[in-house]
Write a structure and sequence with these properties.
Blueprint lengths: L3 H9 L5 E4 L3 E5 L11 E4 L6 H11 L6 E5 L6 H7 L6 E9 L14 E4 L3 H17 L7 H17 L3 E8 L2 E10 L3 E9 L8 H14 L6 E5 L5 H8 L3 E11 L3
Parallel strand pairs: 3-4, 9-10
Antiparallel strand pairs: 1-2, 2-3, 4-11, 5-10, 5-11, 6-7, 7-8, 8-9
Helix pairs in contact: 4-5
């Protein structure tokens, strides 16, 4: 893949998704997670020109999907170009920003009273799912099927951790999870995953501290790999990452429609 986002997406899901390469597109299927829209999609190699043709191709490639998700492996493809093609289609246009750390990370201390450690027991993961559910609903994701989706995500993460491909760290106040973050890597790339903080504990420096702990773990295993994170560069999270030393590397475009 040419884009850092899609390359690291497939790295994180190594062994869990089926990838079929065609001359003009890559089809990604995640059999155990049918509700994972961005794990069941078609990624095209050329800029879009015909929305109907691309939508029909998605349905042909992912015939059992109740959603629709298309991306382009074209770094810095213009949002306006995609929006114009899909105008009136009812699909949502989404731009993702990939930030990369090419220098030193600006270090942050763990907030007083908190402990950062790997996720260990079932209750740790249940708490993580609860934080994610609140955030997803606030972002407008449909609640139908969400619990199954989150349980499937937890199972997938646990499998990848057991394989040694990554780790998941939580920030705890006693046994209470107040934030968590995943990190995965190969020899060339390090990818942060699903950064989240409990809504009652934001703006305490929890995310900044998790960035440091996660990176220390990954760099102990892949010291020359490039760390990347996907977030809107001008969002609160994006600004936090940029203060930590990350810089915008590229943008990627997708269109999608949740299940009807």
């Amino acid at each position: 893949m040419r884009s850092l986002e899609f390359a690291t997406d497939l790295m994180v899901q190594s062994g869990q998704c089926l990838v079929t390469c065609h001359p003009d597109r890559v089809v990604q299927i995640t059999p155990e997670e049918p509700n994972f829209w961005f794990g069941n999609r078609v990624i095209f190699c050329d800029p879009p020109t015909d929305a109907d043709r691309l939508i029909a191709q998605f349905h042909a490639d992912v015939p059992t999907a109740k959603h629709l998700c298309i991306g382009w492996d074209i770094p810095n493809l213009a949002r306006d170009e995609v929006a114009a093609v899909f105008d009136g289609s009812g699909l949502r246009v989404e731009q993702s920003d990939t930030l990369a750390l090419r220098g030193d990370l600006n270090r942050a201390q763990t907030p007083d009273g908190l402990t950062i450690r790997p996720m260990e027991c079932a209750d740790d993961w249940v708490q993580s799912e609860a934080i994610a559910k609140v955030d997803l609903i606030k972002d407008g994701a449909p609640e139908r099927g969400m619990d199954d989706y989150l349980r499937q995500k937890t199972k997938a993460r646990q499998v990848q951790i057991a394989k040694g491909l990554g780790q998941w760290f939580g920030a705890f106040d006693g046994d209470w999870l107040v934030g968590d973050m995943g990190i995965f890597h190969d020899d060339k790339l390090i990818r942060y995953q699903s950064v989240q903080t409990h809504e009652d504990h934001r703006r305490r420096g929890i995310c900044a501290a998790l960035l440091c702990v996660c990176l220390d773990w990954a760099r102990s295993r892949a010291p020359k790999a490039l760390p990347v994170i996907v977030a809107q560069a001008d969002s609160d999270a994006g600004r936090l990452y940029r203060r930590a030393g990350f810089e915008l590397a590229e943008t990627t475009m997708s269109v999608y429609r949740p299940p009807r």
